[in-house]
């Protein structure tokens, strides 16, 4: 019996393509049907925009125009495009609600959840909070609420965030991304040897996973 195929994903909560890429990966696995091998997914921290203020007071259009030096019309077109791609993946983005902020505390909470076997559930909840609901994913009280929603212990989560217990793990993930040469997310590493950059179509993930499964079968 072969072991599960490991899929490591570098991702940020404040990354629209990371949520889309998550859906494409899930669709790629589902498309394999009965032939789908067991997979083990682990998310790793990445800070897409380290210069983001803790609480940006303004709209997504203003944020990108002001901080990235992009014309308003270009920003609006870009957001419309991303919203359309997200919709095709089954996601209902609301950029008018997005609260831009640093995501390091959210990444700490994901490490807390990983230690308790609930990282995937929390990752989904945080992405929805950020892109659909306009949640403040840097505020401890809100983060505790999301943790409790997926079944994590709120008091333990609060202690972990207030103590910064997982801050070093977040930085270790970011450093590992740098060592791998990852400068954009999402970035998927399948079976420790195949890298897929960006929110590729579902069939790209299907093909890569099927290839690894075939290699494992041949080796066995």
Automatic annotation (TrEMBL):
Matching Gene3D superfamilies: Glutaredoxin (3.40.30.10)
One protein family per Pfam: DSBA
GO molecular function (one): oxidoreductase activity
Superkingdom assignment: Bacteria
Matches recorded under SUPFAM superfamilies: Thioredoxin-like
Protein name from the UniProt record: Thioredoxin domain-containing protein
CDD domains xrefs: DsbA_FrnE
UniProt source species: Agromyces agglutinans
Stretches assigned to the DSBA-like thioredoxin domain: 7-210
């Amino acid at each position: 019996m072969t072991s599960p195929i490991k899929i490591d994903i570098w991702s940020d909560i404040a990354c629209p393509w990371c949520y889309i890429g998550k859906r494409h990966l899930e669709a790629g696995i589902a498309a394999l049907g009965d032939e789908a091998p067991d997979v083990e997914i682990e998310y790793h921290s990445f800070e897409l925009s380290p210069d983001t203020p803790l609480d940006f007071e303004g709209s997504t259009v203003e944020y990108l125009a002001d901080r990235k030096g992009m014309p308003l019309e270009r920003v609006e077109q870009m957001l419309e495009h991303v919203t359309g791609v997200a919709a095709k993946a089954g996601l209902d983005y609301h950029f008018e609600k997005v609260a831009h902020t640093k995501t390091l505390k959210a990444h700490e909470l994901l490490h807390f959840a990983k230690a308790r076997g609930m990282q995937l559930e929390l990752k989904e909840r945080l992405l929805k909070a950020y892109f659909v609901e306009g949640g403040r994913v840097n505020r401890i009280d809100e983060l505790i609420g999301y943790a409790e929603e997926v079944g994590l212990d709120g008091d333990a989560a609060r202690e972990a965030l207030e103590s910064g217990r997982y801050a070093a793990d977040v930085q270790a993930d970011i450093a590992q991304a740098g060592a791998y040469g990852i400068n954009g997310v999402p970035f998927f590493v399948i079976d420790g040897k195949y890298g897929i950059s960006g929110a590729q179509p579902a069939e790209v993930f299907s093909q890569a996973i099927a290839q690894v499964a075939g290699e494992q079968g041949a080796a066995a």
